[in-house]
Amino acid sequence: MEKYSGFGILSLALSAVTVVGIFIFFNFVGFSAVSGSADSHETYQEFVRIESFYIIFIQFAMVAIGLGIAGVCTKGRKKLFAVLGLVFSIVVLLISFAVFIMDIIYNLPRDDVYVDIVIPHEVTPYY
């Protein structure tokens, strides 16, 4: 009977840790933004610390993708956990990058974005 791939089990475990960590990160940042403490100078260092955890969780997802690929490529082992870890990690990365891009687009400065509307002068006919 074949055993499960060790790389696959590690990939699934690491992707589960990543999902929980990023879920907690998004909840904390969303709660802080709603409560109004996101603009406070005192909490700036706290946000830097929290964002560094976000970067660590993204790196966990990348490592989990590598472990999932290694688990899928391992011969003579079951690949269920490797595929699950690979899929969860890819989904987490895609959602995280989509939220990151939406945040960048949302926070673009609006002063330099304008539409120049030319209103023609009223033409008076010559009689």
What is the count of DSSP helices, taking H or I runs of 4+ residues? 3
Helix-and-strand structural type: mainly alpha
Major sheet description: none
Please bin the fraction of helical residues: 55-70%
What is the quaternary state of this protein? single chain
Quickly count the domains. 1
Kindly estimate the percentage of residues that lie in beta strands according to DSSP.
Answer: under 5%
Q: What's the β-strand tally?
A: 0
The ordered string of helix (H) and strand (E) elements is HHH
Rg: 24 Å
| Cα end-to-end separation | 100 Å
Shape estimate: elongated
Mean pLDDT: 81
Uncertain runs: none
SSE arrangement:
Layout (H helix, E strand, L loop, with lengths): L5 H30 L8 H30 L6 H27 L21
Helix pairs in contact: 1-2, 1-3, 2-3
Explained architecture:
There is one protein chain. By secondary structure, the protein is an all-alpha fold. It is built from three helices and no strands. The radius of gyration is 24 Å and the shape is elongated. The N and C termini lie far apart (100 Å). The chain has one domain.
